[in-house]
Amino acid sequence: VIATGLDGQFTYDVSVYLPVNNVKLIATSGSGWIEMTATLTVSSSTLSMPNSTPAVSPAITMPFGSAASQLSAALTGSGTTLKWYNASAGDVASFTAPTPNTATAGVTTYWVSQADASGCESARVAIQVTVPAPENVAHVSDEQCGTTLPSATSYVYANLVKNAQAYRFKVTDTFTNEIQTKDYVLRNLMLSSMSFFKYDQQYKIEVAVKRANVWSDFGLPCYVNTPSASTRVIDGQCGGTIARKSDYVYVNQVQYAKGYRFLVTNWSSGFSQVIDSPLRCFSFNSVQNFTMDTMYSIQAAVKNTDGNYLPFGPECTVFVGVSNQVLKTAAQEISQVEVSDVLGVSAYPNPFTGDFRLDIKPASQSTIVVAIYDMIGRLVERREYAVTDLAAVTGGSSLVSSGIYNLIVSQDGQTKTIRMIKR
């Protein structure tokens, strides 16, 4: 340690090193440190912890939901300052007395000490605050507060109150501040029974209880969210085929929905159209620029009870044409690559605009036939290749119309088919 001073008087506080047994002094000269002889005077003062602790009420009971006040303690002896803690040891002191939380039943312990003018601190003393569970105060169950209900028909439950004759639910739409009140003999409420029920909405719920023919005040508020709602094309049609333009496409029904919105996209042209309907279905008679033998993607949205539409649900693909084949989903169709241990074929890009490239792994040295058919079975392109000419095989350049085509590659009785989409 380095002491500093003037005129031969140098001081340094060594209290942090107590007890001190030996001290060696070294002075500095122009060239460095040298040992020297000096007179050392050690002075000390005695500091002690205050013997007394602050005076407190060690056990306090506060009614559930009451307006709590700050805790208090009285200084004793040489104490000048109160220091509050949330633990019996460690923790950071606060010079402001805490205010207990009466919104939750249970027991909470606080600690307080006192310090004297020199900063010495006493031991901590505990104050135990008990908030008993309410017997006649109703509120939504703690497990549901701050959560989203699983469905529109899920119940919201109040706590069970002894000798209750009925429960009164006050429900507030936090967006519009509209309030509705319903009384029930049972302690449960279905939010969808409210006239202003909406999907994807937060509600504030307060509960009062009737005992001895007298209604209590409403208890603490609780916030509960209703779930969002989405839908999609039914399983029997999603990824399938619609044979006629007049056939209806259906989506899964959503309870309390005021209508449905359909986003229909033609995969060949990229043209999209929105169709609104009070029913959960539409037909392609409503689709502008409709073309047969075409893949369409369909998304549906639910019309909420307030007239606004919720987000679109998952995408489904439907092929509209004469084929009765049940197709795979659009993503599977586009990424499909036909591979065989005998004859391997892949085509890219898919979808394509001008032409596409073919990678063919021949099964033998025989001639390979590449043919392209439209969706009604008409041959639109046919070529033959020797095995030595497979380095740069292309196709589709003769196709004029956008649409879906079947590419068929054959060799020695082996046939591979890939569905191609021309934009």
How would you describe this protein?
With 423 residues, the protein is an all-beta fold. Among the domains are: 155-225, Immunoglobulin-like (Sandwich), CATH 2.60.40; 241-331, Immunoglobulins (Immunoglobulin-like, Sandwich); 336-422, Sandwich (Immunoglobulin-like), CATH 2.60.40. Helices cover 1% and strands 37% of the residues. Strands 10, 11, 13, 14 and 15 form a five-stranded antiparallel sheet that branches. Strands 16-22-21-18-19 form a five-stranded mixed sheet, with no helix packed on it. Strands 5-8-7-6 form a four-stranded mixed sheet, with no helix packed on it. The longest helix is centred in the C-terminal third of the chain and has 6 residues, at 330-335.
Could you write a compact summary of the structure shown?
The protein is an all-beta fold and 423 residues long.
Features:
Immunoglobulin-like, mainly beta, single chain, 423 residues, 1 helix
Blueprint of the fold:
Blueprint: E1 4-6, E2 9-11, E3 26-28, E4 33-35, E5 59-61, E6 81-85, E7 106-115, E8 125-131, E9 155-157, E10 166-173, E11 179-184, E12 188-190, E13 202-211, E14 214-215, E15 222-225, E16 241-242, E17 248-250, E18 259-266, E19 272-277, E20 281-283, E21 294-303, E22 316-320, H1 330-335, E23 344-348, E24 356-361, E25 368-374, E26 379-385, E27 393-395, E28 403-411, E29 414-422
Parallel strand pairs: 5-8, 16-22
Antiparallel strand pairs: 1-2, 3-4, 6-7, 7-8, 9-12, 10-11, 10-13, 13-14, 13-15, 17-20, 18-19, 18-21, 21-22, 23-24, 24-27, 25-26, 25-28, 28-29
